[in-house]
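Justification of resources, computational component.

The compute hours requested in this renewal are based largely on the per-chain cost of generating structure records like the one below. Each record pairs the submitted sequence with a full C-alpha cell output. That output is archived, and it is also reused by downstream analysis tasks.
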Amino acid sequence: MTRIPRRAVVVLLTVGAVALAGCGSDAGVKEAKDGKVTVTGKGPKATVTVNGEDGTTITFNQRSLPAGFPGDVPRPQGARLQSATSGTRAGKQFFQLTYALGSTAATAALDDYGTLLGDAGLAVSRADGSGAGTLAPPLQADGSGWHVIALATDASGGSLTLTVSET
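The structure output for this chain reads:
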C-alpha cells in the first residue's frame, strides 16, 4: 500500500478550508468583471472565477458537477454534492468536490468510494493508520489519465472531499 505524503494532505485541507471560508463570506464585492475575476450571483451561492495571466483558471463554489468532470472517475453514491471547484493549470484540468455524507460514517464512505474507483479501473491505495481525530485515513487512485485524492471526516455531519487532477 502506498502512503499519501502528509504534505499533500495538509495542502488539500488548506485549499479546501480557504475555499469554504471564502464561499461563506459576505465580502463587499457583489459583482465584478474586470477580465481577471468574475463574481456571479451573491451571498453563499455566488461563484467566483479567476483567470490568471498564464492561462490558469479556477471557479469556486459551483453547486453542480462542473462541466468537463471526467466520466472515467466515478462519483460517490448516496452523498449530496455541496460545492465544487474546477480549473485548469498548465493546460490540465482539476476539480475539488465536497459531498455531505449524511448518516454514512467517513471510513465507510471512503471504503465504498475506493471500491467504485477500483471497479472503474483505477489503482487505489489507502493511507495507513486511523486518521486524525474525526478524519478517516485518506485514499488515492490513479488511472485513465487522472489522479484522485479522497478525504472524509465525521465532523459537522460528515463530508467527503475529492480532488481530481489530470495527469
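Residues 6-166 form one domain. Residues 1-28 have pLDDT under 50 and may be disordered.
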